[in-house]
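Input/output pair, single chain:
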Amino acid sequence: MTDMIRYKNLLNSIKNRIRSAQIRATFAANAEMILMYFDIGKMIHERQQKEGWSSSVIPRLSKDIKNELSDIKGFSERNLGRMVAFYREYSCVSEILPQPVAKLDNYEKLPRTVAKLLKSSDLSSEKMPPTVAQVEKTNLLKNIPWGHHFLLIEKIKNIDIRFWYMGEAIKNGWNRDILASMIKNNLHNRQGNSSTNFNQTLPEMQSDLAAKTLKDPYIFDFLTIAEPFAERELETELIKHLENFLTELGTGFAFVGRQYKLTVSDKDFYIDLLFYHLKLRSFVIVELKKGDFKPEYAGKMNFYCSAVDDLLKHSTDQPTIGLILCESKNKIFAEYALRDIQKPIGVSDYELTKALPENLKSSLPTIEELEKALEIEDESDKKKEK
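Output:
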């Protein structure tokens, strides 16, 4: 190994260490900020309850904090209101959230209004030990960005479903836009909903993980394809939007190839889409079908899984999984078709766009009506200019 290679290895190691430290520091800073916002929301809420103060105290607090801590951002009237709402939403886990402000003995350096709230808060009483579930919820609360929290509060009323999305956002590294898309498409109702034979074909732990990996239906609303279309056209569009497709498939999918060739007994066969799943440690075959599911699709997929296991699978890999995507399926047909199949296979629907209700469709303007309205608007603007 040359000195240059050794030097590059050292440089890469140092860069990786710096990046990992930056990531940990970011998470730690976010957790501290969330805890502070929770505490402040709790203080304001409790004083409002005790003193009978209305929400008008929030603008005053915001003004005083800005005047006395002018270099600190994030305490606008709107954000203080959100802190109170945040505490009220999650007061059920307040018993286990750390209260670092209780250790402060000197309040002189704090804004007078905030110091008064701190002094009046009863934060020193002994608490019961938290349950495992409470600790998990607290960790989720601390590690989700502030913007994510209010998207979840605004869009999801069920607190358990909210915590589920928090866990998925952390696990998958979703930004706010992806989280919004997953909520919009009801991921919590789709994940793990595919028709499969995993219980009969995979060990228990692998079966559970594989089942949770698949969804039903898959939402391909990022495609511009319209009826009528062929299977190959759908495949082409998915590859054009591969990043969106991988996001919809979920974390862990790595793209291997399209129309992947398998040669069996001197005859060539082509898989629509081939992936490798990093968590499952297995190849995943995706076959795209136009129209309804047909039982014979399961037999063909069983053949493909056997071929991939023989030709591509490493000795340390788990069995290859097949996923058949159809426009629609009869669950009973799918269950019967998969019952005696030896390879792990799932069957799911896919949707290109969500259909509008008929009453809404009739109320929307046609393209011709929109064009006519735009022409009238243009003519009106020209007259005003004259």
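Confidence is low (pLDDT under 50) at residues 99-111, 117-129. The chain has 17 helices and seven strands.
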